[in-house]
Amino acid sequence: MDSKETTLTPLDHIPADIVCASDYEQLAPSFIAADRFAYIAGGSGHDVTLHKNREVFADFSLVPRLFHDVSSGNTQLNLLGKTLTHPVLLAPVAYQALVHSEAEIATAYAAESTDTCMVVSTLSSATLERVAKRAGQERWFQLYFQARDEDTFALVHRAAQAGYRAIVVTLDAAVQTPSIRAMRAGFRLPNDILPANLIHQQASEPPAMPAGQNHIFQCYAQHTLTRQQLKKLIEVSPLPVLVKGVLDAGDAGELKALGVAGIVVSNHGGRTIDCVPASLAMLPAIRQEVGNDYPLLLDSGIRSGADIFKAIALGADAVLIGRLQVYALAVAGALGVAHMLKLLRQELELCMATTGCVSIEDIKATKLHRQLEV
Question: Can you give the CATH number for the domain in which 303 is found?
């Protein structure tokens, strides 16, 4: 199948067989070309980390509680000085035109209609300005550092001028090992799908590699952000700067000391390098390192409201939804994304009611039953 063709045009209604948020993942292969689905669904290498991200959630169970009045329950939280209606954010996902003609514009409309903070990717198919016009007031911009500092800072200032509230710098994707699943499916990014935010940048030549140097080490060094670059970004950015892609507690403590406004615990959905720990497994130690009042979010593996509950109980303030938003977008466009978010919120609220939690703070104080060693 040509990678430019999808299997089925997105629906203008919610399919009757969608009864929970994760159903969108099951239905998505019927709406996305096979090679594109392999690229989106696959992780790095042999998908070991991809599977770990999901499996670790099953190690923890909720404990129902009796005689709790939950009639005043709500899911509000304060994050970076702003009150959010619920703890579910849309993660930055590149090239959403792979699954829908309106791409991030449709996703932004769903975010606005559900009071959801959307984190817009540097590699979005629509410019950050176009997305901002459709998204809600609470929107963040995900930043990949560019080869030239002036290009990086230009993106930051464009985001500020467009009304974004925060910058989320991704640090764990300097080098990504190929997805074996995507390679076997023959995926190639179509020529007509471009990073709209970067197309006007002047092309730059990569630094020459010294003779005798290992290509992988050199490539990693050329694309890895330094402490000095991060400190400079924090100094010049008119917006708070968060860092995405942290798994080590020591790194988290250092980032906090550098002035980073918050951290997203993430292994990039298992897409950077295989055989690293699941994000959820590393979350408690990172929370202990940074303290209770420091903004901490979790990315990777969320598929249900119960997953969200568990992430918050183990230390997260909020979570980011990645693949699931793309699957919903492919199935039913903006309507699908909005419906998926509604289902996640309903599933979370049900978990809260069952466990006697009336607030996000109550979830944080909840002790989960641990069934297996992580």
Answer: 3.20.20.70
